[in-house]
């Protein structure tokens, strides 16, 4: 069991302490005792308030199974108090992480950048991990078709997938093959010169 060395002073039943009302109206409250003698009840009240708070903080630390020791080691006390906040409030590891897209950071919604192009080049989407997804149209042709991505992949295009387009009710069906050829382009060929296609490209 964790140890809490900080104990409240004068908290027992019938403790000799000034009442709260008298304490709040005490002339010496703003300035402290500057002359004369303070009554024992007033001194006990002055000691009870900070010692109670200290005991409460110490018990908060101890409730997290960490020691709160009155040994002058302030650094350890602060460290244990900080750790007890995380433990007692159930914050988990996320409480120790910053917002961002680097290692051990948590992305917020601004990290999910999406740009939609008005031109036929297509759409692209950056994920916080750095993965880039692009998709768009492939022109109809009887031969190889080179398609330029909306934006260049910063490092590499990993994979391209494509499917033949279809017009409802036309009955025209076909197949298409595609491959990446650079950071900026892909190549494809369809079985029908009348049908274009759509692609999905993934890279980083």
UniProtKB/TrEMBL annotation:
<feature type="domain" description="Putative tail fiber protein gp53-like C-terminal">
    <location>
        <begin position="127"/>
        <end position="203"/>
    </location>
</feature>
<protein>
    <submittedName>
        <fullName>Pin family phage protein</fullName>
    </submittedName>
</protein>
<dbReference type="InterPro" id="IPR054075">
    <property type="entry name" value="Gp53-like_C"/>
</dbReference>
<dbReference type="Pfam" id="PF21882">
    <property type="entry name" value="Gp53-like_C"/>
</dbReference>
């Amino acid at each position: 069991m964790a140890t809490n060395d900080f104990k409240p002073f004068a908290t027992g039943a019938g403790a000799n302490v000034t009442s709260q009302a008298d304490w709040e109206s005490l002339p010496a409250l703003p300035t402290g005792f500057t002359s004369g003698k303070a009554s024992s009840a007033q001194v006990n009240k002055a000691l009870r308030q900070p010692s109670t708070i200290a005991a409460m903080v110490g018990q908060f630390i101890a409730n997290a199974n960490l020691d709160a020791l009155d040994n002058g080691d302030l650094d350890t006390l602060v460290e244990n108090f900080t750790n007890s906040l995380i433990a007692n409030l159930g914050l988990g590891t996320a409480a120790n992480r910053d917002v961002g897209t680097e290692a051990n950071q948590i992305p917020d919604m601004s990290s999910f950048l999406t740009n939609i192009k008005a031109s036929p080049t297509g759409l692209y989407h950056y994920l916080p991990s750095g993965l880039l997804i692009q998709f768009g149209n492939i022109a109809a042709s009887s031969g190889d078709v080179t398609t330029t991505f909306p934006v260049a992949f910063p490092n590499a295009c990993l994979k391209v997938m494509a499917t033949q387009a279809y017009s409802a009710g036309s009955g025209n069906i076909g197949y298409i093959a595609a491959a990446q050829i650079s950071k900026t382009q892909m190549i494809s060929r369809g079985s029908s010169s009348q049908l274009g296609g759509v692609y999905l490209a993934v890279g980083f």
